[in-house]
Design brief:
heterodimer, A: mainly alpha, two-stranded antiparallel sheet, globular, B: 265 residues, alpha/beta, Rossmann fold, six-stranded mixed β-sheet, four-stranded antiparallel β-sheet, 10 strands, 39% helix
Chain lengths: 363, 265
């Protein structure tokens, strides 16, 4: 999409030049400056959208590692999100709040008195989720393709049932309330940038190549010495870590969590994001996460009464979802491989695009 | 040369079908061994068992003196047996150079944390893998195509790329499944020269399956013939060429000498 260089160069001269590094650092600084400005001047609604965008980028980028880069059709993100959200919430809630909330059954002893700072509980959320992913990997990756999707879908349901029934840990269907809203722009975007950085670096290493090999041809990958189960387990844990952290961020953004929050719809939204962005493209995941999270809010104008050139429009509730579906269908019709296909953003590509569009510009 | 591969009395049963019946095969370092037989004889099955893709029913496989029977495909590959596939199995959507670099995955010494942080061992390993991959592409005359998508290569180049990828594993034993299928006579002759040079320069053992008899007879030191899973002959090319059972297996009984042209057809 970017740049005229449609010739296939992925993975060839991926030596990051000094110029690219400078440009990346520079653009991160611009982003931080923007966040600083947004933090001070934007209303809380807009800030909330920006925080949501960051969390969804984090989720989409880590989900894309499994579904896009490694080509394993997993539907587990809602489970990972739930584990991360619950773990972090259990560790940040104060002792008094735990006493007050757990009315059906008191909380299990060591958990009822432990309280950690937000950063540590996020880290614990990530580690706990990654551990669950490791335990899950061996039984789950015995199957591939559609079967894998069904097994991981079932896993998501299992986690919900567990959350509903482990009263002394999760407080059942009452959920956990009164979480302190720790998640702000800085936490959300800090985790987001960290996730993108780690994931991109991993994809550009031999580990990432091994994952792509498993996607392309698992038999050939194994014949070249790649232990498919091991690399799948690793990628699953890696992805789950960031999804767990994102779950923690989400929990402390909405401040109330209950099992019904983490339904399959969450996974489904993420699936739409990674497919629209282009399966296998981290850039695509980022772009689609921004577009869809922001677009879902922007389309609300069609649900509100307005006046188009003298024509009075009453506003139809649910109109937003209809338009959203139409846009999704159009994207899938005209860009089958998503916005980015499998290509990634490169500074070289962007500069070449500028050179072509504005010949006078000597960059 | 030391014995690399020692297959003893290997049998494979698919349901009621005996796909391989007590196959024995030895390949030493610096030796090229041919495995031939009519279609459906069990040649590819033999390769699949040796590389761990298919479970054997009885018999044993030794590699470099170690019993590798029942090992996983990736473990066998890491221990030095590389192979190519009859129906080419490249990583089609990846670039040519990436295809070769992937085979060097087991040789990396850096952890994923080092990869993320870009520490010393990471860049050293990456540049080693990259230059090694370019060397192999140069060897196979594919260097100019390094940035192309593997699936966009012509058929012959795809076969060559598969061999480059197999060599990136730095194998002690290379198993080639129909390497010259689809090549014209000139390409086949060049490939035969290449195989011989490869054997001499790396002193690796090579096992190959092919239907092009003049090619097989020309490059192989010894040949094992199987028919319907049963080993029927073993010897140097001239012995095999004139073996009655072999002629019968290929052409039926009451027929003349097998020539390259007949068998290839």
């Amino acid at each position: 999409m970017l740049g005229p260089n449609r010739k296939f160069t992925e993975g060839l001269f991926k030596v990051t030049t000094h110029r690219d590094r400078t440009l990346t650092v520079f653009s991160v600084i611009i982003l931080l400056a923007f966040l600083f400005y947004a933090d001070r001047n934007f209303d809380s609604y807009t800030v909330r959208i920006l925080e949501n965008i960051a969390i969804f980028i984090t989720l989409a980028v880590s989900y894309n590692l499994i579904n896009g880069v490694m080509g394993q059709f997993s539907l587990a993100p809602n489970a990972f999100l739930a584990i991360g959200a619950y773990t972090s919430a259990i560790f940040t809630l104060s002792q008094e709040e735990k006493l007050r909330s757990f009315i059906i059954e008191p909380m299990l002893w060591p958990l009822s008195v432990i309280s950690f700072p937000f950063a540590i509980s996020l880290l614990l959320a990530g580690i706990a989720t990654a551990l669950v992913a490791v335990m899950m990997a061996t039984p789950v990756f015995r199957v591939r393709g559609d079967y894998l999707a069904i097994v991981t879908l079932g896993f998501g349901e299992v986690i919900q049932v567990l959350a509903n029934n482990f009263l002394s840990i999760t407080n059942g269907s009452l959920g956990l309330k009164g979480l302190y809203p720790y998640t702000n722009l800085w936490w959300a975007w800090g985790v987001c940038i960290f996730t993108i950085f780690c994931t991109v670096r991993l994809i550009n290493s031999s580990y990432g190549r091994a994952m792509k090999a498993v996607r392309e041809d698992e038999i050939a990958a194994e014949a070249m010495g790649i232990n498919a189960l091991r690399i799948k387990t690793f990628a699953f844990a890696f992805s789950a870590f960031f999804q767990g952290v994102a779950g923690g961020l989400l929990a402390h953004l909405i401040t109330t969590i209950s099992p019904s929050l983490f339904t399959f719809m969450f996974t489904f939204n993420l699936l739409i994001i990674v497919v629209i962005g282009g399966l296998g493209s981290t850039t695509g995941s980022v772009i689609a996460a921004v577009l869809i999270t922001w677009g879902n809010e922007a389309l609300r104008v069609f649900e509100e009464p307005s006046n188009f050139f003298g024509f009075q429009y009453e506003g139809i509730p649910g109109m937003r979802m209809i338009l959203f579906s139409v846009i999704l269908i159009l994207v899938m019709l005209f860009a089958r491989t998503g916005i980015m296909g499998r290509s990634e953003f490169t500074w070289e590509g962007l500069l070449q695009w500028f050179r072509r569009k504005i010949p006078a510009l000597k960059v | 040369m030391a014995l690399l591969l020692d297959v003893r009395n290997l049998s494979v049963l698919f349901g009621g079908v005996l796909a391989l019946n007590k196959l024995s095969l030895e390949i030493a370092g610096g030796e090229i061994i041919g495995l031939i037989g009519p279609n459906g004889a069990g040649k590819t099955t033999a390769f699949n068992v040796v590389t761990g893709r298919i479970k054997r029913s009885s018999g044993s496989i030794f590699f470099c003196g170690r019993d590798i029977t029942g090992w996983s495909p990736s473990r066998i590959a890491r221990n030095g047996i590389a192979r190519t596939f009859q129906n080419i199995k490249l990583y089609e959507d990846l670039s040519v150079i990436e295809n070769v670099m992937i085979a060097a995955h087991s040789s990396i010494s850096y952890s994923f944390l080092e990869a993320i942080l870009g520490l010393g061992r990471f860049s050293r390993d990456e540049s080693r893998i990259r230059s090694k991959a370019f060397e192999l592409l140069e060897l196979m005359n594919l260097k100019e195509l390094a940035a192309e998508r593997a699936s966009s290569l012509p058929y012959g180049s795809q076969r060559k790329l598969e061999i480059a990828r197999a060599l990136a594993l730095e194998p002690k034993l290379l198993l080639l499944d129909e390497p010259v299928a689809g090549m014209n006579p000139t390409e086949t002759r060049e490939f035969a020269d290449f195989i011989l040079r490869l054997r001499d320069s790396l002193s690796i053992g090579i096992g190959l399956i092919d239907h092009d008899m003049s090619f097989v007879m020309g490059v192989c030191d010894r040949i094992r013939v199987i028919d319907h899973g049963v080993p029927i002959a073993w010897g140097i090319p001239t012995q095999v060429r004139n073996n009655k059972d072999v002629i019968a297996a290929y052409l039926g009984t009451d027929f003349g000498v097998v020539t390259g042209d007949h068998a290839a057809n």
